[in-house]
Structure formats: C-alpha cells, structure tokens
Amino acid sequence: MKEIGRLIETDADVAEGAAWLGRIEPRFADVWAVTGPWPLRRRSGGFEALLQAIAGQQISTASASAFWARCVATGLTNPATLLAADDETLKHAGFSRQKARYARALAVAALDYGALETLPDDRVIALLTAQLGIGRWTADIYAAFALGRADIMPAGDLAVVEAARLLFDLPERPTETQMRALAGPWAPWRAVAARGLWAYYAHVKKREGAL
C-alpha cells in the first residue's frame, strides 16, 4: 500500500515546503519575498469540511465565505439538519438547486471520513470523486486543507492557473493538464506551491486594486 507522505499541520510545515520550492524554482522565493509567509489554510475534516468545499464550487472566495456563513448561521452544517431543511431554506442559505442536490447526496452518503485520513492521495481522490457533485477540484481542496496532504495540486483552480500564467510569463492560462505537468517538479510540496500561487494571485490583484 502506498504511503500517505508528508502532512501540512503547521505554519512551519508551509515554511519548510516554501524553502524547498524556492531552491528548485527561484520564482517561488521571489513570491515569498513579496507576499510574506503563505497561509496555512488548514481545517478540520469530515462532512462539514466537504460540504464547505461543495459550497465554494465555481464562485468567488468572497461569495463562498458569505455562503458558508449563512450555512453556519442556519445550522446547515451537519447531515441531519441539512436533510430536514426544505428547498426554500436551502435556497435562502445560497444553495442552487444543483448544489442542494449535491449536499443532500453527501448527507446520505455516510462516507467514512476517518478512513480517508489513512489512505494515499490517489485513493482519497478516487473515493471522493465517486460521490455525486464532487469533481477533482473539490476533492483536491478537501485533501489539501482538511487532510493536510502536502503533495496535492488543485490544478483546476482559477486563481492557481492565473497566478501561474503571471508568475511564469505564460501566453495564456494553462489547462488543468498543463498545470499538472508544470507542477510535476514541485513534488512532494505541490500543495505548498498552490498556497504560494494563491498568495501571489492575491498580491497581484491587490496591487491592481481588484481586491
């Protein structure tokens, strides 16, 4: 059975990964110099974390934060409460019809979240993407933040690919396949590289007055 590999649990782990990345790719060292330490972004695992990832699908970070705040305020963060809620309650919280369907499917799926912590990355991704409404981006986000996996690259994330375009002076945003190829040499710290790209994206947008 494959080993799980390194976990990201503390700011020191992020700093270790960033230092390693800076040695093999100097542009990451440049990013650290302008952004400062990259956020840990660690969260607890389980139903709530996966539901939060579903809530954040295909919307901005600000919208996802507001959406999740409404879910917390209305108690829609556990399976029983969510299943008891009617369509209007879910809609008021911010769930589209499609996301409400995904959320309810997750609530009845009875995933063994504890077992996910013991599985290698590829098995985690396979089990999560087998669930209704969970694509690769959502699975990557859960594995990186809720499980702390150090070598996950959310290559389908808009901010990640846009930051890569800017940082590496690419003619256009890389596709998901191209992004995974670009990130290949960054193993075993690809999840830290993603944190660096998110930090760089935020830095550039703030500089441009877009945040």
Cα Rg: 18 Å
Main beta sheet strand tally, sense and closure: none
- Give me the CATH fold name of the largest domain: Endonuclease III, domain 1
Q: How many angstroms separate the termini?
A: 45 Å
- Helix and strand string, N-terminal first? HHHHHHHHHHHHH
The helix content, as a percent range, equals: 55-70%
The appropriate CATH architecture of the largest domain is: Orthogonal Bundle
Kindly provide the name of the CATH class of the largest domain: Mainly Alpha
Overall average pLDDT:
93
Strand runs, count = 0
Shape, per Cα inertia axes: globular
The CATH superfamily label of the largest domain reads: Hypothetical protein, domain 2
Number of helices: 13
**Beta-strand percentage?**
under 5%
Oligomer: single chain
| Total separate domains | 2
SSE class: mainly alpha
Poorly predicted sequence stretches spanning 5 or more consecutive residues:
none
How would you concisely characterize the structure shown here?
The protein has 211 residues and is mostly helical.
Outline the secondary-structure elements.
Blueprint: H1 11-24, H2 26-35, H3 47-55, H4 61-73, H5 79-84, H6 87-93, H7 97-109, H8 113-116, H9 121-129, H10 136-146, H11 158-167, H12 176-183, H13 190-207
Protein architecture, described:
This protein is an all-alpha fold and about 210 residues long. It has 2 domains: about 10-40 and about 150-205, Endonuclease Iii, domain 2; about 45-145, Hypothetical protein, domain 2 (Endonuclease III, domain 1), CATH 1.10.340.30. It contains 13 helices and no strands. The radius of gyration is 18 Å and the shape is globular.
